[in-house]
Amino acid sequence: MAGLTVEVSPVIPSPRPFGYRSKITPHFNAPREGRDLAIGFLKQGNRFDIVDVPRCEIATEAINTRLTLARADIRRQASGPGYERGATVLFRDASGVVTSDYGQRVTEEVPLGADGTLHLSFLARDFFQNNPFILPAFATYVRDQARSTGARFLVDAYCGSGLFALAAARAFERVAGVEVSESSVAFARENAAANAITNAAFSAGDAASIFSGLDFPPEDTAVVIDPPRKGCDPEFLRQLFAFLPRSVVYVSCDPATQMRDLKEFLAAGYAVTAVQPFDLFPQTRHLECVITLVLA
């Protein structure tokens, strides 16, 4: 797709092929007379039909325990009067504690080997990687790739609550992170303080605007990007290539949009030095891929 032939490293597997997912959002429709209430997920290729899922084999055991109780409660309520609408139910497991409160503060611990354990707090509704069991290897790899290029400064352009920025902070002189979600930025700052990391600064805003006020020298800067499934927007790439950092570590949950963007990096003068897939979502078609690019 990118017109490039390059060696791809063997996929790094999830330590757990089942029971790994730390967040699920089952759905249910308004109850219909004479029909069992399906509580589960949309049928593939269909926007309306819900498949009843009493147990989710890729979700953690703690979530499945909570799911069993919640399904019984939903069915009891549905049998009463005035129950006219369906809904989506959140189950977030953070370090074995499950919540269904979208606004609940939760904390995940990410072991980083010799660098200790990273404690990350965020809201249950906010984005956070949903396989905590592979996160130590995943975050460490991204850190090591950014560090291996010889950069002294790091920019995390889609930082969320600070996973990559804080996991890598001790390997760089200074780190800057940007995120569109203000609540995530607030947690990233709090997480930096909680982990005694003083060289990381975070700001709320579009990733495309981070380079305008950045005082890092481009030739000494590595950039980590982990965009949404749609990939990088053209304005972000335009500003990134105007800044022209020493290296980029591109994390993607959609290889197709990543390959689309990779063509732009090659045209801008970057060369691929490593391609490492991670099986963050076993039993699904989704694959996380990390590509390291260095300015040629």
Structure description:
Strands 12-11-10-13-14-16-15 form a seven-stranded mixed sheet, with helices on both faces. A four-stranded antiparallel sheet has the order 4-3-2-5, with no helix packed on it. It has a three-stranded antiparallel sheet with strand order 1-6-7, with helices on one face. It has helices at residues 61-78, 135-148, 163-168, 182-194, 234-243, 255-267; strands spanning 23-24, 27-28, 39-42, 50-52, 87-88, 91-94, 97-99, 105-111, 117-123, 153-156, 174-179, 200-204, 221-225, 247-252, 270-278, 288-295. The mean pLDDT is 92. The two termini are 21 Å apart. A hairpin with a 7-residue loop joins strand 3 (39-42) and strand 4. The protein is α/β, with parallel strands linked by helices and 296 residues long. It is globular, with a radius of gyration of 21 Å. 25% of the residues lie in helices and 26% in strands. The protein has two domains: 26-89, no CATH class; 105-295, Rossmann fold (3-Layer(aba) Sandwich).
Features:
Rossmann fold; globular; 7-stranded mixed beta sheet; 6 helices; 296 residues; alpha/beta; 2 domains; 16 strands
